[in-house]
C-alpha cells in the first residue's frame, strides 16, 4: 500500500494548487494522508476526486467548512498498521515522550504545523513523521513531502522528497 504524506499546503494562500509532482503522487497512491492547514475546501474536494483514499485532519488555519468535514485527530488501520494523524503536537522539545503518552495504541503518528520535516521513533516504538510542506517551506531549504509503503502492518520505504524548484 503506497502512501503520500503531506501537510501545510496552504492553498491558495501560498500556492494556487499543489505542485504537479505531488498531484502525480496523489493519483498513484493508495492513500493520501494530509496533516492539516489546507486553507480552502476546494483542495480537499479535488484531492478526494483525484485520489483513491484521503485521510486528513484540520489545522489551526482551517475554517469552519474544513472543520465540519475533517476531524482534529484521524485514526486508521492500514493493513495492520495503526495510523494517527494530527496537525499540532506542540514544541519539538519533549515531543517523543509527549506523543508516546498521548498515542499509546499507534504505530505511526503523522503531524504538521511546523513545516519542518521530522522522522523519529519514540522509546515505545511510535514513529513520528512530519512531511514539511510542498508549497510553503518557511525557513526550510526546500518544499517537501513524504512517500512510504505499508506492507504487512509495517511502514517501509519512507522517503522525503524535495519539490523541484519553481514547481509550487
TrEMBL record:
Domain Calcineurin-like phosphoesterase: 1-151
Enzyme class: hydrolase
Listed EC numbers: 3.1.4.-
Matching InterPro entries: Calcineurin-like_PHP_lpxH, Metallo-depent_PP-like, Phosphodiesterase_MJ0936/Vps29
Pfam families per UniProt: Metallophos_2 (PF12850)
Keyword list, A-Z: Metal-binding
Family matches, as Gene3D superfamilies: 3.60.21.10
Cofactors that this protein relies on: a divalent metal cation
Transmembrane segments: none
NCBIfam families assigned: yfcE
Family: Belongs to the metallophosphoesterase superfamily. YfcE family.
Name of this chain's protein: Phosphoesterase
Amino acid at each position: 500500500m503506497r502512501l503520500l504524506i503531506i501537510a501545510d499546503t496552504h492553498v491558495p494562500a501560498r500556492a494556487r494548487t499543489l505542485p504537479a509532482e505531488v498531484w502525480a503522487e496523489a493519483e498513484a497512491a493508495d492513500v493520501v494522508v494530509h496533516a492539516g492547514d489546507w486553507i480552502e475546501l476546494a483542495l480537499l474536494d479535488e484531492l478526494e476526486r483525484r485520489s483513491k483514499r484521503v485521510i486528513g485532519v484540520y489545522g489551526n488555519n482551517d475554517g469552519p467548512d474544513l472543520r465540519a468535514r475533517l476531524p482534529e485527530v484521524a485514526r486508521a488501520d492500514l493493513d495492520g498498521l495503526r495510523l494517527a494523524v494530527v496537525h499540532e503536537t506542540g514544541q519539538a522539545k519533549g515531543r517523543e515522550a509527549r506523543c508516546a503518552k498521548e498515542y499509546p495504541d499507534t504505530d505511526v503518528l503523522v503531524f504538521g504545523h511546523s513545516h519542518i520535516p521530522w522522522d523519529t521513533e519514540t522509546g515505545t516504538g511510535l514513529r513520528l513523521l512530519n512531511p514539511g510542506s510542498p508549497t510553503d517551506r518557511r525557513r526550510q531549504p526546500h518544499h517537501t513531502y513524504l512517500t512510504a509503503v505499508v506492507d504487512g502492518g509495517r511502514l517501509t520505504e519512507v522517503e522525503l522528497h524535495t519539490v523541484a524548484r519553481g514547481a509550487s
